[in-house]
C-alpha cells in the first residue's frame, strides 16, 4: 500500500484551493482501491456561506471529494497523467450524515469497471466509522485544450 502527501497529490490533480478536497492518500494499491483523507475545518471557504451559524459540508462537495480521490487512482491505472477526468454520470448517490467542521472524511474509492475509454468507481465517505455518503461515479478522460 502506498501513501501520498498533498504536494504529490497536486502533481496528479489539477485542482487547487478552494476546490482541492483531498489532503492525503493513506492507502492505495494502484490497481483497484484507494483511500484519501479530507480534514474539515472552519477555515474551509465553503463554511463561510453554507450555512452561516450552522456550517454544513455540501453533499455535492462530498461527491467531488470522491471523484478527486478516484482521479488519483485512475490517473495511474489508466496512464492518464496530465489529462482531466470529466464526469459522465453520478448514480445511486446517498447522503446519510451531516458533515461539519472538525470531522475527518475518510474517502474510499474502488474501481469497478473500465470500458471503451470510460471508467466507473464506487465511492464512500465515512466519518468515525459511520457511512456519511456514497455514490457510483463514471468518468472519461480528455486532454486539456
Sheet with most strands: strand arrangement: 1-2-4-5-6-3
Amino- and carboxy-terminal Cα gap = 34 Å
**Number of helices, where a helix is a run of at least 4 consecutive DSSP H or I residues:** 2
SSE succession: HEEHEEEE
Counting DSSP E segments of at least 2 residues, the number of strands comes to 6
Percent of residues in helices comes to 10-25%
Q: Report the major sheet.
A: 6 strands, antiparallel
Average residue pLDDT: 94
Which parts are unreliable, with pLDDT below 50 for 5 consecutive residues or more?
none
Structural class: alpha+beta
Give the overall shape: globular
Q: What is the percentage of strand-forming residues?
A: 35-45%
Radius of gyration: 15 Å
Keywords:
145 residues, alpha+beta, 6-stranded antiparallel sheet, 2 helices, 6 strands, globular
How do the helices and strands line up, and which of them pair or pack?
Blueprint: H1 6-12, E1 24-28, E2 33-39, H2 59-77, E3 84-95, E4 104-115, E5 118-127, E6 130-142
Q: Could you walk me through the main structural features you see in this protein, from its secondary elements to its overall organization?
A:
With 145 residues, the chain is α+β, with helices and mostly antiparallel strands. It contains two helices and six strands, in the order αββαββββ. The protein has helices at residues 6-12, 59-77; strands spanning 24-28, 33-39, 84-95, 104-115, 118-127, 130-142. It has a six-stranded antiparallel β-sheet with strand order 1-2-4-5-6-3, with helices on one face. It is globular, with a radius of gyration of 15 Å.
